[in-house]
């Protein structure tokens, strides 16, 4: 199968993937995103965050990855 044929094949499956995602993910408004960013900025400024490397290391340890 050529690269083009593979790409077309994958593109045909995307609408099904979108429908599945819609069942689990609610739509998010611009206002919701902006509110979340504001909350994150306040948390960061007050030191309420975890280092990403430490967080991922914890997940790896927890799930044995």
Blueprint (SSEs and pairs):
Layout: H1 3-24, H2 30-45, H3 52-63
Characterise the protein shown here:
Helices cover 77% and strands 0% of the residues. It is built from three helices and no strands. The protein has helices at residues 3-24, 30-45, 52-63.
Keywords:
65 residues, mainly alpha, 3 helices, 77% helix
Rg, Cα atoms, Å:
19 Å
What share of residues are in beta strands? under 5%
Q: Provide the succession of SSEs.
A: HHH
Query: How far apart are the termini?
Result: 33 Å
Please state the overall shape, judged from the principal axes of the Cα atoms.
extended
Average pLDDT taken over every residue: 87
Low-confidence stretches: none
Structural class of the secondary elements? mainly alpha
**Number of separate strands:** 0
Q: Give the % helix.
A: over 70%
Number of H- or I-type helical stretches: 3
Largest sheet: none
Summarize the structure.
By secondary structure, the protein is mostly helical. Helices cover 77% and strands 0% of the residues.
């Amino acid at each position: 199968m050529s690269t083009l044929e593979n790409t077309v094949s994958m593109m045909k499956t995307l609408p099904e993937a979108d429908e599945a995602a819609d069942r689990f993910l609610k739509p998010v408004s611009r206002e919701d995103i902006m509110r979340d960013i504001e909350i994150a900025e306040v948390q960061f400024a007050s030191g309420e965050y975890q280092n990403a490397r430490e967080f991922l290391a914890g997940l790896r340890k927890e799930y044995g990855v």
